[in-house]
């Protein structure tokens, strides 16, 4: 705005000089008037948030975007960093959000002979791509209102961390595309409910939205809100991939009237989520609380989310499920590579299990205890493309969630200012002027288009692999190069348990953890 104001003042000054000094000033006046008109158009247009917040100046971003392929090629040809550039996932998301399929000439830019490179196995007899993408029925034997989950959904992002318009756009996109929108732990707000999209209501350690004045779980408020028709599932957050074992903090400056109302907290005061739950302290208590939540929610699918840590602790939860004959309807595995607006660097870099190992652990534990067919597994952590979805299904998931990619679809520029309340495109701010820049109708369409194109990509990949149903995907269909001369499938890289094997004679690699797992202590 400052730049536009200065240009407008310059144009006015040039017009004065035209009248008072010389007609030659028309050259400067003409240029400045054109720039003023462009800046005015930037403020009025509804497609680009960065231009609405930064008229004129924001065009530099698009100039750099246009130059990027040439600049990348310049550096690749000179091999400045010793390797070619990786394909920019953000570009794929942006293009799909705009309705343009991301295609590149001249083949892959990946080093297919580098250690760690992974690839999916195509079939000599591919099958037809289905007209409608598959969905996953979520709901175990104690669920009376099962839900059909899409292969890709909006992962947990709270109102407060995200702006009102960002939440509205995500939910409207979910409504347009028929996929689910996880509320995050910040409570149910009017912006989650207004557009009518399907919701997974997440309850964290602060019990926001169903909380007593001293921070305990409030059953009556939970029951009333869980009964809303928009709420399709309820989820208990145990831990988050980017910062497992630590609570969240929402600065008081961002806690306005609406956020305070959604979270049942005082306005203007910093909100701290504790690192642990009050409602349970043992695996058995966790399982029984899940059963209570499902009962209070009228039989809607109920589950929990965690970043996997100790395998013994998760096996203790499985033993508690067996002892009580109670299972969650779903478990969301959040990988340690997942993102967050704010977390200590050491937590983000060094704590928690990456998504691949987390999925394999949870899937194997449920198979080995004979519980897998009762529980669906969701996966979150840098899921952005159709290939990401298929890989996670191979590794044990039934469906996936994405947060970062959905933010890119909203127009996020990844400036990493989420915690400062100065997001340049209105995604992670409560500043009304900055929020205004995010036009809900446009961004909702972008979210819808991105999700639809990405799921379509996943179904095309599965068809190329000869797979008609995601349940046909097996670990032998994903392979990893472990060194320049060795390639192994996931069937060889990991041990895959037989159904119920832990209840009889556990394999040697599992017997110590299984024996030590106690349903009455973590």
Describe this structure in words.
- The protein has 522 residues and is an alpha/beta fold.
- It has two domains: 2-86, no CATH class; 136-503, Aldolase class I (TIM Barrel, Alpha-Beta Barrel), CATH 3.20.20.
- It is built from 19 helices and 15 strands.
- It has helices spanning 2-20, 26-44, 49-53, 59-78, 89-97, 164-177, 190-193, 219-226, 257-263, 283-296, 311-324, 345-350, 355-368, 386-394, 404-410, 432-436, 440-464, 490-493, 508-516; strands at residues 118-120, 136-138, 147-149, 152-154, 180-182, 198-203, 231-237, 249-250, 271-272, 302-306, 330-334, 376-380, 399-402, 478-483, 486-489.
- It has an eight-stranded parallel β-sheet.
- Helix 11 (311-324) runs parallel beside helix 13 (355-368).
- The longest helix is centred in the last third of the chain and has 25 residues, at 440-464.
Overall tally of domains: 2
CATH architecture of the largest domain: Alpha-Beta Barrel
Q: Using DSSP, what is the number of strands? A: 15
The strand order across the widest sheet is 4-13-12-11-10-7-6-5
Tell me the distance between the termini.
Answer: 55 Å
Number of helices: 19
Characterize the biggest β-sheet.
Answer: 8 strands, parallel
How big a fraction of the residues is strand?
5-15%
- Give the fraction of residues assigned to helices: 40-55%
Report the radius of gyration as a whole number of Å.
25 Å
Give the overall pLDDT as a whole number.
88
Structural class designation: alpha/beta
Given as residue ranges, the uncertain stretches (5+ residues, pLDDT < 50) are 69-86
Highest CATH level, the class of the largest domain: Alpha Beta
What is the CATH superfamily of the largest domain?
Aldolase class I
Q: What is the CATH topology descriptor of the largest domain?
A: TIM Barrel
Q: What is the overall silhouette?
A: globular
